Amino acid sequence: MTETPAPPQDGQAAPKRLFIKTYGCQMNVYDSERMADVLRPLGYATTDTAEGADFVILNTCHIREKAAEKVYSELGKLRVMKDERSAAGQGAMTIAVAGCVAQAEGEEIMRRQPAVDLVVGPQAYHQLPELLTRTARARGERIGADFAPVDKFDALPQARGVDGPTAFLTVQEGCDKFCTFCVVPYTRGAEWSRPVAAVLAEARELAARGVREVTLLGQNVNAYDGEGPDGAPSTLARLAHALADIPGIDRIRYTTSHPNDMSDDLIVAHGELEALMPWLHLPVQSGSDRILRAMNRKHGRAKYFELIDRVRSARPDMALSGDFIVGFPGETDADFEQTLDLVRRVRYASAFSFMYSPRPGTPAAGMAAQVPAEVARERLHALQALLWEQQTAFNTAMAGRTMDVLFEKPGRRPGQAIGRSPWLQSVHVADADQLIGQIVPVEIESGQQNSLKGRLTGAGLSSAATPHPTAVGAQESLHGA
């Protein structure tokens, strides 16, 4: 998103340009938005390109293969830009590395790439203004990589820059599960939940700016146990009920969940709370009990199936999403067949699947019986073919149905708008660009692998003729921010 700040008045400095490149998960997207928020009072407006930027931040992710190498490659390009800018007398370009790679490899980053001015871990980005000032004065500590999320959230400004009717909202950080393949406990720290009052205050501010749908984020979001109004720990279900009471918040989602934290009251909430969308991302990683034990997942096939049955009993139209890793050390053909069997039994509306790749410092990286890459690649292709078949079937079955769609942004064609169904599908509708920010009924004409095509019904056409006052106010709020 590029911001268009007001031109400087006489005697005022021109706005500075901020470019943030975000890698990885939704939590990094949220963190990048909040970095822009903390830097906005310093006169930084976001831009869509690193060229000409005064401050460049790489917000990194350590989950995927070769994550650090990609960061160093990008830093090499930025160093050239920085040198050229300096040689042209255009002022300094400040470069920062943030996120999980920064947390894991802070000292190494500073050593390998001297062009980097700041390294900031995921719990320390609220310190960016202070670190930036110290860097500008060429003194002080350039690395901020502590584990103090409570300090971070307390220091963030309440006002957020939002662009559209949907927003991410971090409610929980860190992980205590210690899956043998994962670096998150080492880069994000222990599980910690924001107090209910703090979450509700941020949600109210988002609603006042026109947000209709919030997605609650956490490494294990359904482990949420933030302090409630009575001082006792809350649950994600109780938090969802409180969020649904905020005027303007019509839809609630959450991700990512762990099967071991899928509590009874959260399952019940899916059947009781209309605002809680019928879409659940519940990673399982493997269908083999033997591999699940090696992954330290602390659940098996039977528990996962039992959870799915209970969720679908509470909400029969629930759509499932998941995560899968193939080629984990020691995985045999029989283990992989168990994963395919699980997928066939659950039937997913969408899923993410990856080849296992070792993460330095994790127990799995040193395990024997590493699966050859060509075998893992063949298994991944087979799994993805099945998952894509299920996703396409789920979408094509929507043809002929009428569903409420929250319109988020203009489409590529004149007059077209793109929205989201209750099941998180992308819905393309002609002659609907005036409905952005509104939830209106749409008749689905066809479904493809990755999206739906729909048309406005009679009620939707009436909404198009008379823009909803909430949507109009939201646009005015966004433009006036």
Offer a quick outline of the entry.
This protein has helices at 26-39, 67-87, 100-112, 128-136, 149-155, 184-187, 196-208, 236-244, 264-272, 289-294, 301-314, 333-346, 373-396, 458-465, 469-480; strands at residues 16-22, 44-46, 55-60, 94-99, 118-120, 143-144, 166-170, 172-173, 192-193, 213-217, 251-255, 279-281, 319-326, 350-355, 402-410, 417-420, 426-429, 439-447, 451-456. It has 481 residues and is of the alpha/beta class. It is globular.
Explain what you see.
- The protein is α/β, with parallel strands linked by helices and 481 residues long.
- 37% of the residues lie in helices and 20% in strands.
- The protein contains 15 helices and 19 strands.
- The strands form 5 sheets. Strands 2-1-3-4-5-6 form a 6-stranded parallel sheet, sandwiched between helices. The chain has a 5-stranded mixed barrel with strand order 15-16-17-19-18. A 3-stranded parallel sheet has the order 7-10-11, sandwiched between helices.
- β15 and β16 form a beta hairpin.
- The longest helix is centred in the C-terminal third of the chain and has 24 residues, at 373-396.
- The model is unreliable at 4-12, 139-143 and 465-481 (pLDDT under 50).
